[in-house]
Specification:
Blueprint lengths: L8 E3 L4 E5 L5 H8 L4 E4 L4 E5 L2 H9 L4 H11 L6 H13 L4 E5 L2 E5 L3 H8 L2 H4 L5 E3 L2 E4 L4 H11 L4 E2 L27 H11 L8 E5 L6 H12 L3 E5 L2 H14 L7 E4 L9 E5 H4 L14 H4 L4 E4 L7 H7 L6 E6 L9 H8 L2 E4 L2 H6 L6 E8 L3 H9 L2 H9 L4 H11 L5 E4 L3 H11 L3 E2 L5 H13 L4 E4 L14 E4 L7 H9 L11 E8 L3 H15 L4 E5 H5 L6
Parallel strand pairs: 5-9, 10-15, 10-16, 11-13, 11-14, 12-13, 14-15, 17-22, 17-23, 18-20, 18-21, 19-20, 21-22
Antiparallel strand pairs: 1-2, 2-4, 3-4, 5-6, 6-8, 7-8
Helix pairs in contact: 2-4, 3-4, 7-14, 8-9, 16-17, 21-22
Length: 565
């Protein structure tokens, strides 16, 4: 095969792929590579991807073959591919599904047609305690209660199981989608939303029923979940991140289906109802008064015969919920997220216990089609005032990030940005309450924090939605599952170290389509020459994955009105 030196990829034998950002073929190569590679670094000119085991297995579960992946690498590589890499990709991809879980009477059967491999696996300390009676040369009986922990053990050994053991049917619940919502608006499921739900459901086949749908914030993941519910026609438990998100899910389900209001109930710290469709917070599920006791609210998983469990923002799933999910593998499970990245590194548990990635669509693709707003992303680098430079220099390492994040010079930049976008709805989001209270006091803008009661939150969100207020300051409570469709500008004054998932959620706050098709603006204020700048590079990796790029602006130029924002 003839390789083109003008191509953007350098594929290396250690499974890293270097991508030239300034290459004319960069965008198409990135989009072709992203389904089976993980972005590791994204400096200005060369991005580094890795062909990790998990990225290859997620791609395999979504239907990509090793040959499909190799064709992409060959098409965009400058140089011949390392021969060892071709073999390694093929072998790694082939590992997915070498071991299968099937139904066996009232139990399960672990099957592996490769007899030497099965013998090797059967002797693994992590696995052998879960193997029951030997049925024949290629299979063992498995107790249903071991279904989740067995899959966890197999992926750590390097042989992720394909789970074809099926599901308990769950209690029936007739429901249909409305063509006109209860609020009187026309409602149509978008093509990609229906496609995502159909791929997950798979016509009720055992190859469907568990998996993760990856869609941008603002692309209607809630609608995907509701569409899946109407395909299943089953009693459903929805787990989500906050009281606000619970109320949003309930509002959306009642608005867009023919279910009665009494069928859709809330299980939270405020009220603990259980009905045909129950929406609960992760917080209440994992609450316990004593760390030595078990989790009393885990009982919700057995309170009804659930036919479907939806895990909203699955990248935030608390560790204890993995434990209970390992024991309910017979329930259909749908994960919804904007990013598979977990800050705790437990992506493998999402893969095994919720399911592999079943559907993914690049943010820029939806932007091109008009389903989410076009976004203009800017990093504004602000100098630390002289009186704080010495404090920063002599501070303990762990305190430097906070000093940089709370840089008071950012307030003048916020004022300038709000002035430039005076006619827009602006969200200001930050990590540190003292910083947010200072902004609240200086500009007299409503502030929502974790201490704001839910009634006041809902009232402020409603006023913002209706355009009655055009400025709102949010703490971390603003990161997740809040319906703020009219936000046009977001100013991020501080963030959680290098959290890529946080960057995903915050950008998503402004990506809902604008009525007039205008561009959304995302400004991240970062203190130059400090630790905050280092962490900002990590957060930017998320935007790079989705095809966005930052413009770097100097805070002094912004204040001097030397740049157009």
């Amino acid at each position: 095969m003839n390789y083109d030196p003008t191509n953007p990829l350098i594929v290396q034998g250690d499974r890293t792929v270097l991508v030239e950002v300034d290459n004319p073929k960069y965008a198409e190569a990135r989009d072709a590579l992203a389904p089976f590679a993980e972005l590791e670094k994204s400096p200005e000119h060369i991005h580094t991807y890795r062909l990790s085991d998990l990225s290859l297995w997620n791609a395999a579960a979504a239907g990509l073959s090793a040959d499909d992946m190799i064709v992409v690498l060959q098409k965009y590589s400058k140089f011949p591919l390392p021969m060892n890499l071709l073999t390694e990709i093929a072998e790694r991809v082939e590992r997915y599904g070498r071991v299968k879980l099937l139904k066996h009477a009232d139990k399960l059967r672990l099957v592996c047609a490769d007899r030497p491999l099965l013998e090797e696996l059967a002797r693994q300390p992590k696995l052998r305690d879960y193997l029951g009676e030997r049925l024949d040369a290629t299979s063992f009986v498995i107790e249903p209660g071991f279904r989740g922990v067995l899959k966890q053990a197999l992926i750590t050994i390097g042989y992720p199981a394909e789970d074809l053991a099926g599901y308990s049917e769950g209690a029936g619940l007739a429901m249909t989608l409305r063509e006109i919502t209860r609020t009187g608006l026309p409602f149509n499921v978008r093509d990609y939303q229906r496609e995502a739900a159909e791929i997950f459901y798979a016509g009720g086949d055992v190859r469907g029923g568990s998996g993760v749908i990856v869609l941008p914030c603002g692309a209607g993941k809630t609608v995907v979940g509701i569409t899946a519910m109407t395909m299943m026609q089953k009693s459903t438990l929805v787990l989500t991140t906050s009281i606000t998100a619970v109320k949003q899910w309930i509002r959306e389900i009642i608005d867009k289906t023919d279910l009665a209001e009494s069928d859709v109930v809330e299980y939270s710290g405020e009220c603990k109802n259980i009905g045909p469709v129950t929406v609960a917070t992760y917080q209440i599920i994992t609450h316990r008064s004593d760390k030595k006791e078990d989790f009393p609210h885990f009982k919700i998983f057995n309170e009804r015969d659930w036919g479907l469990i939806i895990y909203d923002e699955v990248h935030l799933l608390p560790a204890p919920v993995f434990r209970v999910t390992a024991h309910i593998q017979a329930r259909r499970r749908l994960g919804l997220t904007a990013t598979l990245i977990r800050e705790d590194g437990r992506e493998g548990d999402v893969f095994t216990l919720i399911g592999p990635k079943k559907y993914d669509v690049p943010w820029r693709e939806l932007e091109t089609k008009g389903w989410i707003a076009e976004a203009n992303c800017n990093e504004v680098r602000v100098a630390l005032p002289d009186d704080l430079r010495m404090e920063y220099a002599v501070s303990e390492w762990r305190n430097k990030y906070r000093i940089a994040s709370e840089n008071p010079a950012k307030e003048d930049v916020v004022e300038r940005l709000m002035h430039q976008h005076a006619d827009k709805n602006v969200l200001i989001i930050g990590q540190y309450l003292s910083q947010l209270h200072s902004l609240h006091k200086r500009f007299d803008i409503p502030l929502i924090t974790g201490a704001t009661d839910n009634m006041e939150r809902e009232e402020l969100y409603g006023k913002f939605r209706r355009g009655e207020i055009k400025r709102l300051i949010l703490s971390k409570v603003g990161n997740f599952a809040i319906d703020l469709p009219d936000a046009q500008v977001l100013i991020q004054v501080s963030g959680t170290f290098g959290s890529r998932q946080e960057e995903a959620q915050r950008l998503g706050r402004i990506l809902r389509p604008k009525a007039n098709g205008e561009t959304a603006h995302f400004f991240s204020l970062v203190t130059r020459d400090t630790r905050e700048l280092d962490f900002a590079h990590h957060r930017q990796m998320f935007l790079t994955e989705q095809g966005y790029s930052y413009s770097i602006l100097d805070g002094a130029d912004v204040l001097a009105e030397a740049v157009t924002l």
